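User: Okay, second chain of the day. Same drill as before: sequence in, structure tokens out.
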Amino acid sequence: MSSPASAIEAPFFREKLGELIAAGSLEMSPRELHRAGEVASFLPADTCVYIPSLPGLPLSRMLEAIAAVRRAGLDPVPHVSARRILDRDEFRSFLKQANSSYGVHRAMLIGGDEPQPKGPYADSVQLLEEGVLAECGVREIGVAGYPEGHPSIPSFDINKSFRKKILLAREQKLGLYVVTQFSFAPARVLEYCSELARSAPSVPVYVGIAGPTDPLALARYAQRCGVSASLRALRTLGSGIARLVTHTDPKEHVLAVARYSASHESTSVVGVHLYSFGGAVRTASWMGSLLSS
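Assistant: Same drill. Structure tokens below.
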């Protein structure tokens, strides 16, 4: 039985949950661009939809995805994967067209998972140093946060790169915010958010959460993304992993973020970001159901 205090708090947390979803975003693969209209039917106008950079995906295809998202009444946010950029001039032309034709003003800046750079940029800091994003109309950049660390980059290097990005963004008058990697361990994510609130209090944070998805696909994505601590914890459950992931509604993770935000005046958390793993319509429907409840 819930206590009187929890009964009083429940509506407040539900309201906070709605705020986090309303301010939130989701990912949609370029392979799903034909379903942009369906995604939009569940979400408020101008919801941010992030378009991942896939291996081998030409910029022309990325531009088609951007156009589809904008036509659907949503706000396209392309991933800019530094190590996958083949040519400076081609990339500059892509950015200019994305901005002038489809109003792209925000980009998610990442290094990319390529073992070797495919073009002129070794990492996202080098790309940011050139100033091409600001020159081509981008006004705000997202950078990745890793609550469980990065599978191949030491924490010291990640923190050094993060500080450099903050300085470069400030110099170029770019807004900067963090989107965290998803995790099966909400407590670790919230600890990471507290660390950011102390070390970079002016940087907004969007907490990444795994959307509703097939458990095997989720485990596969987690392995690829380096969500190692969470996976180790799940594996200790043996055959229970599938049952746990299948029946763990993302709402519990969002509620954990809502409780954290409500109880920490100094929090920088402003919204959530849903990773859809190729199921953008399902994720958008889930978000819409919370907004309408």
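Residues 1-8, 236-247 have pLDDT under 50 and may be disordered.

User: Thanks, on to the next one.
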